[in-house]
Amino acid sequence: xxxxxxxxxxxxxxxxxxxxxxxxxxxxxxxxxxxxxxxxxxxxxxxxxxxxxxxxxxxxxxxxxxxxxxxxxxxxxxxxxxxxxxxxxxxxxxxxxxxxxxxxxxxxxxxxxxxxxxxxxxxxxxxxxxxxxxxxxxxxxxxxxxxxxxxxxxxxxxxxxxxxxxxxxxxxxxxxxxxxxxxxxxxxxxxxxxxxxxxxxxxxxxxxxxxxxxxxxxxxxxxxxxxxxxxxxxxxxxxxxxxxxxxxxxxxxxxxxxxxxxxxxxxxxxxxxxxxxxxxxxxxxxxxxxxxxxxxxxxxxxxxxxxxxxxxxxxxxxxxxxxxxxxxxxxxxxxxxxxxxxxxxxxxxxxxxxxxxxxxxxxxxxxxxxxxxxxxxxxxxxxxxxxxxxxxxxxxxxxxxxxxxxxxxxxxxxxxxxxxxxxxxxxxxxxxxxxxxxxxxxxxxxxxxxxxxxxxxxxxxxxxxxxxxxxxxxxxxxxxxxxxxxxxxxxxxxxxxxxxxxxxxxxxxxxxxxxxxxxxxxxxxxxxxxxxxxxxxxxxxxxxxxxxxxxxxxxxxxxxxxxxxxxxxxxxxxxxxxxxxxxxxxxx
Length: 588
Hints:
It holds the Pfam family ABC_tran. By secondary structure, this protein is of the alpha/beta class. The chain contains 15 helices and 12 strands.
């Protein structure tokens, strides 16, 4: 994500290799995220290497100074001071740059995931759900950001260890080979634990997805849990508790495997120290200055070796998280980009909207079978009020989502003014609709309607507050700078605020999915007898999903669905109805 208008699109999950194979998807994503900060990243890595070199020169200078007898060498002291200053400066530069890279990468990663979800097809968003995405945006994004705290230590400690091995080779090849042998033998044992640890980290990620799902249920199901103590106990102690324990146990196993691996390598290094110190054939006891040099190098190398190994778990956790992010993003399917819609398209007039043999299938949870809506053949025109009625599960909301372009028809065509609405046109087509679905979400501001930087926002606030007052909500909420003062309202009250938003959008098509279901009889009457006729009088096409049969006569047409098919189409007496609100412009 190199700029605001650029994006890295993850490949489909079917094309992604397993995370423990080569890590190529993870590398692609991290490279894409770092592209914008490649200059800072290069400087930080260079500073890491310089820090490692300065640290090795420090120990070499100190070893040489300790091996000398008599008066201290001033040139060695000066070199030691210079190396110390370089080590200090490079460590500070490294720490600052990698801290910035860590937070920048986390922000870019979250933006990447959020944009990917926002641009995905609605069916994919509904199928995958929020839990895996929340896990990715929180724990996995944090793991990736921690990579940039571990990376400088990996580079610096690695530079120091290799530098010390080089210095040992300069002092004594047998001693250096012995050290390398100890590290290699230890690495085999560490690698075996590393494979188990990665498998446990991947299992922890899967368990965490379940955990986030249960945490969501803790809030959405709060009423049901409060009303049933046994259900609450079994949920919290059983399902939720088990998910918490699974995440904990998998991570325990992962980091315990790393702890054993680090201990094994450090133990072998102690063995190496003992062999080097007490095996005369290696020539360590040739003279005291050489022996002191070995000891200084050994002790100096032990700390960075331990630090290097202790940062490997962070590296692997970040790699697993990157692969999980790729997998979750891949589940949204290959992203098909289309030209951005013209902002004026949402208000452009139209003559006819036609659905010809349109079908859409989905898995019906209640009947546990595939359910098909259609084939549907309908035509809509401006200034029309249409009710869509039918029993629960008859396909009303699904038909509404197909009609509004949220779902793509599997067969058939949608035509606007005789022009087919294909994939390339669907984004612009959707902009013609304003919808308040039964499971609506009310944002805390008039997003896309009021620009907070616009000088005319005070006028928009005044218009919005007038609508709020007409819906008898002015004692509860106000619109200030394009934002609602509160959303702590009942469902019915929030639906009335959603209606305010819909009116302000002023688009050609209006869809209301069971809007009146949560309203008092007084507001039901206002909605059906005043607001809907007013929208129709303004030339809007209004579609209402409803069970309120006492108001069906107000519609121009009533479409009845059964089992996904339109079984009847009747005409109401709307043409003979004239609401006083229309003449008075109650909501205009």
